[in-house]
Design brief:
The chain is mostly helical. The protein folds into 3 domains: 92 residues, Orthogonal Bundle (Helix Hairpins); 69 residues, Helix Hairpins, CATH 1.10.287.1080; 55 residues, no CATH class. Helix content is 73%, strand content 0%. It catalyses: ATP + H2O = AMP + diphosphate + H(+). InterPro entries: MazG-like_dom, NTP-PPase_MazG-like_C, NTP-PPase_MazG-like_N, NTP_PyrPHydrolase_MazG. It is an enzyme of class 3 (hydrolase). Pfam families: MazG.
Length: 271
């Protein structure tokens, strides 16, 4: 039970202690490792982003708690192995933020947001050197969603001049990769088609970077739009006593276009 006047984080850490206790703990929690918990950590981060996108503040509070628990869980496993603990995590983050904001915590003058972005990346580059990570791409996390990682890889390479100078060059490359994909599909070479599809997606991520668009955010928006419009199709068919598998593509496509038009009309009314 929470103790009066005790920081809530202390209660959470104590709950974690109990869950991992070899005697009286939870068998599932005791079995977990860094590797088995990592997918849940990623999932919780996405659920935080989802709550923000839906502007559901009650859900956001809960999802942030779930994400915090993931940090506590990893910290506890590390403590058991004598590596570090939750306090070390918090202290390292505090030190990093102070180090990367000398205009706030040091003697440097004020910066604009753009100036801080440039300075932040310069400081990170110096930190990579101290960690023996000298390659430009060394610390772009492999575990990132592939589109996000592609955008970060190209952004990092662009800092040293490895970049298309003009947006039209990216669009030309997009056309080139599309044609190469078509060739492999028509040849029936699915393994090569897979590689060409990867190339095409990589260029799309590069295009998103050039447009200053988060590719994951753009795709999430399209996913949400697809779900919204397909739900309209299901509802319209249900009114006819039908399900999608009892319908046909022509009818569903017509309903899709109706849903699309309705959305556009609603958007025009709001503008």
């Amino acid at each position: 039970m929470p103790l009066p006047n005790r920081p809530a984080i202390d209660d959470l850490l104590e709950v974690m202690n109990r869950l991992r206790a070899r005697e009286g703990g939870c068998p599932w929690d005791i079995e977990q490792t860094f590797d088995t918990i990592a997918p849940y950590t990623i999932e919780e981060a996405y659920e935080v982003a989802d709550a923000i996108a839906r502007k559901d503040m009650r859900d956001l509070k809960e999802e942030l708690g779930d994400l915090l628990f993931q940090v506590v869980f990893h910290g506890h496993i590390a403590k058991e192995q004598g590596l570090f603990d939750f306090d070390d995590i918090a202290r390292a983050m505090t030190d990093k933020l102070i180090r990367r904001h000398p205009h706030v915590f040091g003697a440097e003058s004020e910066r604009t947001s753009d100036e801080q972005t440039v300075a932040w990346e310069a400081i990170k580059a110096e930190e990579r050197k101290s960690k023996a990570k000298h390659g430009i791409l060394d610390d772009v996390p492999i575990g990132l969603p592939a589109l996000t990682r592609a955008a970060k890889l190209t952004k990092r390479a662009a800092r040293v001049g490895f970049d298309w100078p003009d947006l039209r060059d990216v669009l030309a490359k997009l056309d080139e990769e599309t044609e190469e994909l078509k060739v492999e599909i028509e040849a029936g070479n699915l393994e090569n088609a897979k590689a060409e599809l990867g190339d095409l997606l990589f260029v799309m991520a590069n295009l998103a970077r050039k447009l200053d668009v988060d590719p994951e955010e753009a795709l999430r928006g399209t996913n949400a739009k697809f779900v919204r419009r397909f739900s309209v199709i299901e509802s319209a068919l249900a009114e006819r006593g039908l399900t999608p598998d009892q319908s046909n593509l022509e009818d569903m496509d017509a309903l899709w276009n109706e849903a699309k038009k309705a959305e556009r009309d609603a958007a025009s009314d709001l503008s």
